[in-house]
Every structure is written in C-alpha cells, then in structure tokens.
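Notes, p. 3: input format for complexes.
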Amino acid sequence: MQNIEHEIKDTNIRLCLDCGKCTVVCPIAQHDPAFNPRLIAQRRLSQNSRGSRDDTIWSCLSCYMCMERCNYHVKFPSFIHALRAESLSEGTQIQCNHGGAIQAMMRLMARGDLQQKRLGWLPKDVELSSQSDTLFFVGCAPYFDVLFSDLGVNALEGVKGALKLLNRAQVPFNIIANERCCGRDLLLQGDRKGFTVLAKANMDEFTRHGVKKIITNCPECYYTLKVNYPNMLGSTGIQVMHLTQVVAPLVQGGKLSLGKLEKRVTYQDPCTLGRCSRIFNEPRQVLSAVAGLKLVEMEQSREKALCCGSNSWLQCGAVNRQIQKQRFAQAEISGAEILVTACPKCQIHLRCAQKSSDGKIARLEILDLASLAAQSLD
Amino acid sequence: MNKPGASIVVFACNWDGLSCIEVAAQKGLSYPASVKIVRVSCLSRVHSGLILKAFELGANGVMLLGCSRSGCHFEIESGLIEQEYEKTRNILGLLGLREKKLALIRLPGGDGPGFVKQVNDFIAGIEQTEPAAAQ
Ligand code: SF4
Ligand code: SF4
Ligand code: SF4
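Output follows (513 residues plus iron/sulfur cluster):
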C-alpha cells in the first residue's frame, strides 16, 4: 500500500483545486450524475476515506479527456488506475463484461508452457524477414475476431493491411508465433500481477528473438509496450512505433505511394493514440495520401475527440451506449460514408453499438485505417 | 476406489442433463471424483466467459451437458450454446490448448449410463493427449 500512496502522490492529485473542469468534460459524468471525477478525488483524499469503497471508480474510460482540461496537470486516469489496484488488493470483486471472457483469455495467455496457434490467418504473400530485429506485434486481433464474430468484427483486416503497407514500403519485419496479450486491460483494471506476468513473458520472447524495434497497429499495444513495460519492468531498450508513425513519413517523402479511393471518411481518434500518445497528425497524413479520399472531421476531433464509449472490458451499460450514440450522431452529421478508426477495440465497441441499435444508429461502414489504406493499393 | 484424474467441470442443465447425473448416482455408477458438476438453469446460460474461467482456474476439460435439441425444457432451443461452444473451441485452438478439452453432449433424460460413458471417454481422451492431466 506504501507504493500506492506514492503513486497517488505522483498523479498530482493533491494539487487538485476542486474546480470541476474535469467533471464538465468527462463523457461518463455527462450521462451519469453518480460519476464525478472531482468528487472521486475529494472522497479519496479526505481524512476519513479509509476503508470506504468507491464503486464509481470502475466506470472511468481512461479517455484522458479530463487531463486535457486540468490546469494543474492532474493525471486523473493514473489516479483511477491506482485506486483500482488498491481496491482489488482489498479484495473487491469486479464486474467484467462479456462474462469475463477476455480477462480469462488474458490470464490463460499468461501460462508459461503456452504454445499458441495464432497465425493461421497470415496471408501466404506476406513477406516476413526472419532475421529482422523489427517485430510487428499483432496483438489480440486473432482472438477478437473469434470472440466478436457475431458483431462482424474484423480486426485482422487491419493487421493484414498494415503488413501489406510495410511490405510495399519494403520495411522488413518479423512476426512471432507466441506473443501474448500486451496486458493493458489487466493493468487498467488494477491487476498489476496479471499484467506483469504477461509483460515478462512477452519481454522474454522479445529478448529471445533479439527484437530492437516494434511496430504495432493497435494503439493500446503501442502505449503499453512503449510506456508501461519500461515503467513496470525497467528499461526495455526497444523502440516502439505505431504503424502510422512508420507509414506517414514514407507517404509524405514519396517513398510509398497509396492508390485511389473515392470516399468521404471521418476519423475516430482512439483515446490511447490521440490524447494519451499525442499521435493526431500521422493517421490523418496517411488518409490524405490516398487519392480521392476526402477526410471530414467530426464536431469533436483530435484533442477533443469523443471516446468510443467503453474501455478495458469493465462496466458497459446504458451510459456507454449514450456516448456511442452521440459519437455516431457526430459521424453522421460530418457527412462521411466510412468511420475510420485506428484501434481494434474502438471497432468492436462501435460495431456493438451499431448492432444493438436496431438501425437507429447511423449505418456507417466502420473500417480500420490500415485496411483502408491497403485497400487503395489494390 | 476412484483414482484421482483430470479435473473436469461439467456444466449440466437443470433438466435432462442433471437427470442423467442423478440417475447415475442412484444406480451407483461410478465416475472419477475429480469431475465437478455445476448446475445451470439451461445450457444457454453458459457462455465463453464461464468456460474459459473454468480453464483459467485449472480445469483440464469442460463438458457441457444438456437436453437433446428437441427436448429443451424451455421449448425454444436458442442455439446460443452451439455458438458459444464454437467460439470457445476456436479460442482454445488459438491458445494452443487442445480443442478436445471442450465437449458439448446432449443426452435424453435419465440416461445415467450414457453420462458415465461420455464422461469417462472424455477423461480418457484428455489423459491420452495430456498425460500430465492424469496426476
Ligand atoms: S480539473 Fe484538475 S484541478 Fe479541476 S477538479 Fe479536476 S482534477 Fe481537480
Ligand atoms: S479519463 Fe475520461 S472517463 Fe475517466 S474521469 Fe477522465 S474524462 Fe472521465
Ligand atoms: S460496447 Fe464494447 S464493451 Fe460494451 S458490450 Fe459492446 S463490445 Fe462489450
């Protein structure tokens, strides 16, 4: 618990002036009066908070909207993550959605003797460079496509698109058969132990394969490998890049030319890629390199982008649906035919909202950025 | 009498599924003590989360035991369990855990010997491919 106190201090939460700006911009607080970031801070910091449980901490989306507004740079999402770890260590049972299937899957992946068979989808024409020290980290896309098959989720299309773009640009890379889930969702839920086991297993694989550089298509893997792994395990000596950071300079420098697609698209900034990792331009640069593609922005975009509505497979209900409806309304007003996202999890949550809405939510096509860019190459 | 064996979780529906197990008990038919029965109101209540959780907690195999498709107590068999079964099998496949570790068995009500045969065959299959599970 000593550590948690330190961690809480590092979030600057004690600088909180109680101004309430976070609450005003928080998408959850907008629809759920019981959720109030300012009051969560106040309750935890007040003298007599000890032992009392705050059940509202599980609703936070880790969307970083509050941090964007806080003048005192309070790292509110990190504060929430610390409170969750504290609460779990006190024995709180959390409600996971999808019956805990994703958490169970992550914990099964933590087994030491695991020999996954997760590369069956790999197209024959993808060129791998087994000697390369650059790894393309696939992430949980193969698992997501099975678990969310009823939603029509197609996260692997994004991965295949990414590989095609890299091949076309002659960027050498390898793939490893036994990578684990990066562990982000366990970390955000407060399960540090579960996260660390996965992270160590991945680091062992990276070391065994002499990995020096990692490219990911999933923003969550990106941030976790880049920031959380060194934070939790010490320096990894591995450079981590998001696909769009690799591809954008290539298309801008004329080293990779994309094809043509006559479409009007809008772009969903994934919270972890945008506000959390500050990657706003590169995805847009890739999209604008596709001839004929017209990018139209939604009312809330870039730093102000609205979250896809759900996070880390915790509590998902009516409030989350409200946020998703709001996002689809913005996408519809933008006049786009395609809602492009760079995150497999945004794709899952948005498709879920669309499916459960009986046609009341805009019937926009939802596509992964990498798969869209790769489509233009055909 | 029974040697300890692979640990098996059986999700049995409250109707024909459970009646098979009850009849097996009444008739004194034996099956390994490492088989744990979890009663559910209907197999449609079981989803991939529960099955994967059983594996996470150390089960070597999971059996889903329910009524025949036409014999569902709730009259409309939704087909949900088939969906979840397929999904979970595919997840187990990706994890490199043998798909044989999961079985969907449908039996007519009161078929005690049928249940014992199915569960013993299931265990034998697992112990054959996974000798460590037998300990
Ligand atoms: S915006 Fe910052 S200072 Fe204001 S209440 Fe929220 S955390 Fe406190
Ligand atoms: S991270 Fe997002 S959901 Fe969580 S408190 Fe901040 S604004 Fe609200
Ligand atoms: S929005 Fe996402 S987390 Fe919520 S129910 Fe749908 S898929 Fe699950």
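The CA atoms of residues 203 and 285 of chain A lie 32 Å apart.
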